[in-house]
Design goal:
The protein contains 6 helices and 5 strands; from the N terminus they run βαββααααββα. The strands form 2 sheets. A 3-stranded mixed sheet has the order 1-2-3. Strands 4-5 form a two-stranded antiparallel sheet. The longest helix has 11 residues.
């Protein structure tokens, strides 16, 4: 296993993003359509937050409780904005950060994705799944 491999070698480069103007319904559609669990939220070129599928699950507590769950979910989603639900105090890494350093960060924190930012511009995202896949390739 290479000790100094940069995170840029395993990160997702074509990042799906949201803006503060997007709806939570749009976010849910992106999560499901692309089979992903984290979406960076941008304002222009700057990353301002991270929305996770778990964030949506937390506010759609009624999901599955009522027979007409789509209507309930829509009502709940309309009560909140992406800015209210997303994580705001982000830790980011740059594309030269090593895989080992990212693994250490993710193992110590309670989140599962990090935005990759170079010169204040979002260039990728790395998740615990990316790290696990990298480790599996090594064996």
């Amino acid at each position: 296993m290479k000790k100094r491999t940069p995170i840029s070698s395993i990160m997702t480069k074509n990042v799906i993003t949201l803006t503060l103007k997007d709806s939570l319904e749009t976010a849910e559609e992106l999560f499901k359509k692309n089979n992903i669990r984290h979406i960076p939220v941008i304002d222009g070129a700057n990353i301002v937050g991270m929305l996770s599928f778990t964030d949506l699950l937390r506010i759609s507590f009624a999901d599955g409780v009522y027979s007409d769950e789509q209507d309930i979910e829509t009502v709940v989603y309309n009560m909140f904005t992406i800015g209210q639900v997303m994580a705001k105090n982000l830790i980011s890494v740059n594309s030269n950060t090593t895989i080992k350093e990212v693994a250490e960060m993710l193992s110590e924190k309670e989140f599962h994705a990090l935005p990759v930012v170079d010169d204040e511009k979002l260039v990728g995202i790395v998740t615990t799944t990316d790290l696990i896949n990298y480790l599996l390739e090594q064996y």
